[in-house]
Amino acid sequence: MKPTLLLGTRKGLIAYRYTNGNWKVENLSFEGVPVSIAYADPRNGKWWAALDHGHWGVKLHRSNDRGATWEEVAAPAYPEGEEVKDGVPAATRYIWAMSHGGNNHTSRLWLGTDPGGLFMSEDEGNSFQLVQSLWQHPSRKTGWFGGGRDLPGIHSIVVDPRNEDHIHIGISCAGVFETHDAGKTWEVRNKGLRADFLPDPAADMGHDPHILVAAPTNPDAIWQQNHCGIFRTVDGAKNWEEVSEKEGPARFGFAMAVAEDNPDQAWVAPADSDAIRVSIKGSLCICRTDDGGKTWKQQRNGLPQENCFDIVYRHALATSGDAVVFGTTTGNLFISNDRGENWQVINNYLPMVYSVQFAE
Amino acid sequence: MPVVKFTKALKRFFPNLQDTPANGKSLLDVLGEMDTHYPGVKSYLLDEHGQLRKHVNIFIDGNMINDRNKLNDTFTTGSEIYIIQALSGG
Prior knowledge:
The structure holds two protein chains of two kinds. Chain A has two helices and 30 strands. Chain A is mostly beta strands. In chain A, strand 24 (286-289) and strand 25 form a beta hairpin. The mean pLDDT of chain A is 96. In chain B, a hairpin with a 2-residue loop joins strand 3 (56-60) and strand 4. Chain B has a single domain, classed as Beta-grasp domain (Ubiquitin-like (UB roll), Roll). By secondary structure, chain B is of the alpha+beta class. The mean pLDDT of chain B is 91. The radius of gyration of chain B is 12 Å and the shape is globular. Chain B has helices spanning 27-37, 41-45; strands spanning 3-6, 20-21, 56-60, 63-64, 80-85. Chain B: This is MoaD/ThiS family protein. Chain B: It holds the Pfam family ThiS. Chain B: It comes from Panacibacter ginsenosidivorans. Chain A: This is Glycosyl hydrolase.
């Protein structure tokens, strides 16, 4: 298990460090400011904080010393003249995803935003440029739309460690796109997904993945918690197969994590439904599959089982070794040291948790 | 020359902010000038297309500006340009 937890919350960045058998707060930064995603770059240990100031716009900060000091860098910005749709200028509303660009591209970073822009840096994050090929994709203006947010948003960036120019991204509400050339060209990868909310549920475009996660031991095995179920692919997203429970809680939710050492083992954090976004029947459970989604097991030991409204946002469930951790919308942070069999509280009374990441 | 005054909320990010005289003839010029005094402050007030952010307001001599997109509101050499944070959220 990596010994650091980095949280992006509604009221700041909070870092915990595992010390003498306990998780203790190591750093609190940007107190009171929404941190849409907190990210530690595993290549160099730099910490990033994407801020969502209600008043002052989206900002991006970087720390070389584990949050002791921060420097602001230029946030991703849409070039003059770019439009979300005809007559509506595109301006960055939210940074929703962040990923490093791999060990062969040491200066490369990726960002995903609402309104649906993918940004790339080739200078260690000193500047970010809009990936025009995706922004100009013929499906965007007519086939992408907003789901829970007003506009489409890129929340998932999955870089293939075997070839770091090979990337899958997830967009709410558009679907999955794949590039083999670091974003110069794109292919749509929505085959097998189902969008119940569309006139044609099997349409090419308009799907609503909530998060994409690839298995570290098999990057062609990719999972997604989708608005309309849980889906898995074993051929690099050429074909998706639904693996939701028919009569169980493992269906609707936002978050998903895959075991570091087993592409068939994954966790989801179910919510009641699209219409009722709270925990199911007032109790909190995590569901784990050990067989690629054929069966799911409810994991409740140590989690509140009554009077509970917590749900888990898409970036707020993570795993490292045998540890699984998640933060909730009502400010609870739980950890398991045995792959979800038993849970313990790290903290209650936190702000709404947007992201959780294990780091060194 | 007009003087620009800032909401206290911005001092958190720009600790040296103070009432600042401006030479610019347009509001956009004035905000550009403020950015030279306090690098980065313009991006807190305007988005990348120069439009006033949703939760920011600017008053000129006590009157809220009308043009949030092109910032064409006028002022005089004696004007007070006041930048405020609109209230929102919890």
